[in-house]
Amino acid sequence: MTAIAKDQLKPYALGHLGLAGAFIRECGLIDKIDSLIPKESNNAGHFTHGQVVALMILNGLGYTTRPLYMSNTFFDAKDVEAMLEFEYRSSWFNDDVIGRTMDAMYRYGLTPLFSELALNIMNTLGCKVGSVNIDSTSFHYHGREQMYHEDNSKVDYDEPHKINVTYGYSRDAHPELVQVMEQMMVDNATGIPLYMEPESGNTNDTNAFGRMTKIFESFKKYTDDGYLYLCGDSALYSKKNVTHMSESGIKFVTRAADGNLNSVQKFIAEHRDDELEEIDDVNQGGIYEVEDCGIKQKWLLVHSDTAESRNVHSVESFAQKELLRLQKKIKEYGKSCFSCEPDAQKEIERFSKNFRYCKLVSSGIVKEEIPRRGRKPKAPVPEEEKQYRYKIELEIGINQEYCDMVRRNRSFFVVATNDVEREWKPAELLKQYKSQNRVERGFRFLKDPEFFADSIFVSKNEHIQALLMIMTLGLAVFSGLEWKLRNAMKESNVQLPNQTGKLTDKITMRYVFQIFSTVITIVLDNGERLFYHISEQANRILALLGDKYQKTYGS
What we know:
The protein is α+β, with helices and mostly antiparallel strands and 555 residues long. Strands 2, 3, 4, 5, 6, 7, 8, 9, 12 and 13 form a ten-stranded mixed sheet that branches. Helix content is 40%, strand content 19%. The two termini are 21 Å apart. It contains 18 helices and 17 strands. It has a domain at 255-373 and 382-422. Helix 1 (17-26) packs across helix 15.
């Protein structure tokens, strides 16, 4: 064997990014982006917009806490040419190049561009849209937003597509930080996001979901039979949204908003536990035909043993906290006096309105004569000359009946659908609703600091939105690659060991990325590549994924 001089060797990291790069190439995302937003000039940089987006996706999937907006040093010592099959030099990839691509994406329209690319991924995988899950989340903003355009004109948030970086309800318990929101629709079967839209930080979910239901109708042509479900949490269930969806022919499966609608609370109170059938080890349920919001529906009443055991402690804790707070208030009353009995009675009535988990056991008004100053009079004081003050005496305790009712009601929830013609089984309808964790899992992925950051630092309004779109496109690549591998395992009847060594047919892409994380390449002067640290399990995965992936790793 001919010895190779050390200065002829160029080692590079390939790792798991070869998988992501091969998937991007397989789906033709670079060519698709370039066909939609071509470069305006040959002098605009060495990379096309599609290539810049692909590089940003790889950076986001790179197991690093580096911000996505980005550091060109991320690709130092990485074999980009093996990943994406185009020439790369770090000097070509800078903030100006990234900014121009973000501006071009924004001018085209981030939401339509994203949906075009997501549906392109679905078509490549041969997948049809089944049911779609809808949800939203918030992202912290730590930068200083650019308040003026380049021509010194102030940003107008009433302009089309502008979002307001502001305070709002934080999903991450950081109300002190300004934020932006993102609305997302995810395909239930694959976990691939089909639609995303950046929103202002104070956007109301119910109103935003109402707008998104109109977009949902466009997905019907991508189904096998033009028929699909829109699944969401309780923010989707409002009279306005329910009416619009039903009138538009949209079939929904969502949790009825028990906190906002008295009809749901009344429905739960009217039905007995023994009416329900076993769904699984911890849930019991029954389906009832109802009419709510003027629309005929089927409601699944679900009792959760897990929720009941959890609420035993939470309701008791709430009751004890309220009891301590009210007892402290009663002590303060012991030092207070009222000038007349009606005032004391009004205070008792006002005080009793503060009860939720407690009740008034007894109450009384004590009449006390106010001692006269000076010497004690020799003769009795006439009644009309006497002065009195009034004190209230209160005794409270925990309202066990109310606590039991709250505990029971919180152990139930209602899943609503307007598909009344279908013969639903409780387990079937509950499974359809629980597919909502698809979109929630996607948001957890976006916020995982090992993949993407849950905070945003870029300053330009257009770039803030473009960054959200790139992040969500990275999720589409990740989810599509995971579905492709799992589907290949299913078709080949193959199982692979997971992190604990147990065989599974639902291996996670996150673990697969760890399997490939140590792979390196050595590029010789003649352009030949040598591949190292590819394990036996990695080779099995490459065989399942196909020739393009095997070629990327030199197989």
